[in-house]
Each structure stands twice: as structure tokens, then as C-alpha cells.
Amino acid sequence: MFQDLKVWINGRIVPWTEAKVHIMSHSFARGSAVFDVLGIHPGPDGPAAFRLSRHLDRFFRTADLLGMKIGYSREQLREAVAEVVKANGIGRGIIKLMGYYSEEAIIKLVMDSDLDIAIFAIPETQELILDKADPIKVCISRWRKLHPATVPVEAKACANYLNGMLSRRDAAERGFDLAIMLTTDGHVAEGAIESVFVVKDGIVKTPPLGNILQSVTRMSILEAAPSVGLDVREEQIMPQELLAADEMFTCHTGIKAVPVRQIEDRVFDVVPGPVTSKISQLMEDICSFRNERFRHWLEPLT
Ligand SMILES: Cc1ncc(COP(=O)(O)O)c(C=O)c1O
Questions:
Q1: Ligand 1: which of 253, 256, 279 to mutate, most ligand atoms within 8 Å of CB?
Q2: How far, in Å, from the CA of 36 to the mean position of ligand 1?
Q3: CB–CB of 187/180 below 8 Å?
Q4: Which residue in 57, 79, 82, 91 has the most C-beta neighbors within 10 A?
Q5: What is the pLDDT confidence band of residue 56, given thresholds at 50, 70 and 90?
Q6: Cα–Cα separations (whole angstroms), residue 4 to 85, 121, 128
Q7: H-helix or E-strand containing 14?
Q8: What is the reported pTM?
Q9: Mean pLDDT of the region 69-73
């Protein structure tokens, strides 16, 4: 079905089958591509993008952190997102922005050219269910999160995801849905593509920035949760706190709060717990245009 989709590439809408690079392109051969992903939600006046401004900020920051140049303005990329959503008739789905060097570079390591930009709009399907999730089983990964002194972990760089891929493989081999990586000094970091929250005695905690991706969903939960009376904190979390938590959930832009039913061999009593349910409901209300206070997070695509 992807074959029928259209893609925005460097200012032109092209068929899915034309969205290609050579194997010797710098980004394929050297792993120098970057990206961002955000959700599209159907609204009363058409599809809206969840916190598009924040995602564009992060896309530009990723490029900055890696010394890469984007030859388009924020406004041009915003218009491009709207154009590709319209070209594909998307109601609910995801947008993936990619920055890459299609140039074939055999020995060149540092590129000075602007990034090529491709924007994909992918509708929700049976394989890509958004907003709702079954409770998951998680373990603690034997792989540690990349150290920020080796690569900027806040950059959404494709190469950083080898780390997450290994953690997912580790989880699958042990019969879990995903693995939480610890930092090299032993604190809880995040999953391959998700941030982590724990609840203990009514307090919601998530690890601070520094060793993790600046998740827009994580930030949104931190900002919105106090509006429903929840106490949320950014604090270092030790792995044993996961095992002793009352509740645990993960989040990313596709699914705003995924309840955890088991961590290693500890099974939670009530899943989803009351706090996780409250946060799920809050985020669902926001994404369904039912929450006036945070309605501006759904940015119209016109
Ligand atoms: C490593 C990592 N952490 C957290 C997240 C969640 O980020 P967001 O809420 O912006 O989707 C992602 C999402 O792609 C991710 O890749």
C-alpha cells in the first residue's frame, strides 16, 4: 500500500517508488541521515499536526548538533508537511522528515552541502496503530545508552538507532516487548524509541535530559499532567526503582502513554494503573481536540 503514497523531496511531490538513494550515497554508506517523526490527528477543520513547531525545532537542532545544514526555512518545511499530508489525503497518521546526503561519496567523511530533505506522510494502518496500545512487558537492556560524550544523543540521527536496535533484539530474544537502556553510569535512560515514566506513591518521575532524546511527548506530559492534579518530576531513576514502582509507562509521539504490565519478572497488580490511565485520558483528550487548554498543540495544516 505504501506504493500508492506520494513523498515530498527537495520541493517536489514524487511517487513513493522515486524516493531512493544510491547504496554509495553518504547517508547510506556512512550513516549520516537525520530525521524527526510526529503525529497527524483528524480535527474539525481538517488534519492537524501534534506540536509541529516543536518537532521542527528539534529537526533543526539535530542538524545543528551535527554541523549539518538545512536549506529550507521552518515555514517552508511547515508548508511542505501540509502539502504532503494533502497529497496523500491523510487523516490520522505520522509524518517522517528525513535529512540526508544523497551524494555518492566514496572516501569523503565530512559533507558541506545542504541536506536533501524528504517528507513522508503515512496513514494509520493495522500495522501502525496510533493512540491506543496494549500493555507491554519490558526488561532492562544489557546494552547501555550511547554516552553523550561520544555522539550527541539529543540529535535524532539514524546512526544512533543501532543502539536502540540492539536493545530491542535483546528484549525480543528474552521474550519482552522492549528493553529500557541504562546510562553508562547506571541510571535509567530510555527505550529504543520511547521515553520512560514511573509512578511511586502518586508521584510521576521521568529521567532528566542530558542522556536521552528530547521527546516532545515526554515534554508534553510534563507540561500537561499538573493540569489534572498530578505531581510530575524530572529526576534520576535507579533501575531498582523500576522494579519497586507502583506503575510504569512509556511514551512516544505515535502512542502517548503505553502501560507496562511487567518489568523483568515483576508483574504489576493493576494495569493500567490509575495514574497511567489519567495521563492516557489526558493525552487522548488533547489529541482529540477535547481539551481547550492545550488545543494549540494541534497545529492546523493549511
Ligand atoms: C530514543 C527515543 N526516545 C524517545 C522518543 C519519544 O520522542 P517523541 O515523544 O518526540 O516521539 C523517541 C521517538 O522517536 C526516541 O527515538
A1: 253
A2: 9
A3: no
A4: 82
A5: very high
A6: 13, 12, 17
A7: strand 12-15
A8: 0.96
A9: 98
CA 39, 80, 59, 145 dihedral sign is: positive
For cell 548538533, name the residue.
Answer: 65
CA of 50 to the centre of ligand 1 (A): 14
Task: Please report the domains of the chain, with CATH numbers, ordered by start residue.
Answer: 2-123 (3.30.470.10), 136-287 (3.20.10.10)
Asked if residue 63 has its Cβ within 6 Å of ligand 1, the reply is: no
3-class secondary structure, 256: coil
d(CA 141, CA 133): 22
- Give the CA dihedral 188, 194, 199, 203, nearest 10 degrees: 90
Does ligand 1 have an atom closer than 6 angstroms to the CB of 195?
Answer: yes
Tell whether ligand 1 has an atom less than 6 A from the beta carbon of residue 37. yes
**Ligand 1 centroid – CA 250 distance (Å):** 10
CA of 51 to the centre of ligand 1 (A): 14
